[in-house]
Amino acid sequence: MGLLQPKAADLPIALEKGGSRRRGGGGGGARPALVLLAGAALVMMALQLKPPNRSLLDQLNVAHSADVAAWALGSESGLQNHARSMWQGDTAAPALGEQFLSFQVCGDAAHQRLAVLSGIVLAAEVNRTAVLPRLLMGSRAVQFEDIFDADHFAAAMRGQGVRVVAQVPEGARTVRFNLKQQWDALGSIRGAGIGVQHVSVSCPSFHLPAELYVKHEQLVFAAAAAMQLQQPLLDDLLRVQEHLQSMSSSRLYNVLHLHAEKQWVEQCARWERTESGRRLDNCLNNTATVGDSLQVHKVDPQVPLLLVTGQGSINEELANDALASLQSHGYKLVVWGDVPGIRGSKALPTAESAALIQYYLALGAHQFAGNSVALADALLIMERWNAGRFATYYNGGNIPLEGSIPLFPMPWVFTYNDWSAGTEYDMMAKAAVMSAIQVARMKAFCMFVGSSSSPMFRWLQDQGVNMIQHEPEWKDALIRESTTGERSHDAKTLTPLYNNNGSILATFLRIDIPKLPHFDQYNYVLFTDCDVYFRKHMKLIDWGTPLPHALGMGYERNNMFPYNAGVMMLNMPFMKRTNDEFIDWILRQHNGLDYGPYTFLDQGALNQFYEDEIKGKPISRKFNAMIYLPFREDARIVHMHGPKPNHYLQWLQTGYCAHRDFCTFGIYSGGFCKYMSEYRQFVPEWNVVRRAHRLCTDLAAGTWHPTSKRKPNKPN
């Protein structure tokens, strides 16, 4: 029951078909990655875990008999029954011309939750009143209000501008769509026209365009928060929660969803072999060493840890290793079967009801850890991150659900030192922040060096940037190291960062990112310099697989090593484990912070120390598009490496550029002018950018020519 359609045996065929079909318009057709996600959803079952031994494994291998009812999508009985409800919460007569949308749910508890969220989003998008579906509990279809507080849900949706009702008016003209067969679901529904009062659709999970969830993000999370359990499930939830809270003086508890079932292991092997769609390479990662993973993510071992596993017989070797790993780190395990009253509860007759209790326990936990490939775990991470609650995943890599529901804000961190106050760096930092929030939709963090009363600090705070005032322990030792030994060249001629101690400390500040508790829950964190801007929604899943083993850095001017540290994707568990050794190594080199062929300062140190992990594995240039190189339509991060906008303007006006031919090349052969036409929206108050854009426009029109007409040479 834990794995949904398509069945494991059918998965390769389904993937092959999905990969060979063309997608239409704006529809949400079947995509290979979505098929993988559908198979990844596991129902959290009531399994009792104790220290690894033969008795424990015998208990874990007990087969579970509850099965999910097969709701035949598009079948006459399903279409007739799924909109019926006895709930009388909203009995207002339909408004003149009111149109309705009903939808089915499918699969296990996690899939049904996703179906409800998707159905509400779809109703809002097509401007129809949503009809609450029946839910699947074991072999029965039950009313929505039997599980959730329908009155509360309807009121919350009304506050979001979406009306929710119990049933469709009798005699309403109905058109039915099976979304599995609709490549343009929205077009089909809108095409039904105003003459069709009721549109009925099959389960909408994974059949809507990803951008719809972004457009209706507030509605998605409002609907999730409004799905509050009804009695008697609510009573069981509160009883279990009280028991867990009573086990600690802090009244805190944590939850771990561990996946070590035989069926899960077999399915993971299939996914890793697939050559269609997005390949999953993190399904089983770190399961045997889950205790190590929880430790590096700072999951508190002093807080009781409720351990929940998936349905089906257990892979004994994997389960033994996982339990031993948890115990070696001192985690206080609490097993589901040990919770008083669970075994005799009449409210938990099915896998779905147990899964619901366990889902809401995880929502209310102090810290949650799961497997990002499992749908229930991914939804929990999404909801908890949105609420500002700690959630992590022990298997590393990406979160496949992000490909369909891109509501997992990427953590982005940059540094700022108030020695640059009043310079072009103020404006560039503002542009980076505004594009990060408005376009990239990231969660922004700033490691700020300076006064919290400064205008820039207050501006960043006002934009919602998470401010981190951090003073590194190695501060004095680094300054001493900067004056020790001989440099291989006069670095001051290559960078102004050697000019004062403040600038040296500011650029090295990024090496302490792995130490910051703000990032304990994340597997990957994006760092950039502040002289960048973001052109597209930033999603971890778009970085492809495999993700960086240590840190991802990209080419600088030429396609060669060493790499540029202005944009880095940090593998946080790896960087945490190696951070102390890295810092000690820096302070023992006695080279004046000049690393010879690896370049200098922190960039040189990163290239030399992590050479084995990064050399030959540069990130794509679309994630670090240099502004003086040719324009890239696929660029996601544009980096003003070298000359800044004020330097380009100076060249346009006087023919002089402190960065030699970079300005010439950036304007005549590079992407400066095209990028500036986008960049100006993020700092409309910066006169430099406005004037440079105007001159670029005149240059393109042939109505003006710059002072310098030298033929550009490619930078080297």
UniProtKB/TrEMBL annotation:
A molecular-function term among this protein's GO annotations: transferase activity
Alphabetical list of InterPro entries matching this protein: Nucleotide-diphossugar_trans
Organism (species): Chlorella sorokiniana
Protein name: Glycosyl transferase family 8
Keyword annotations of the record: Transferase
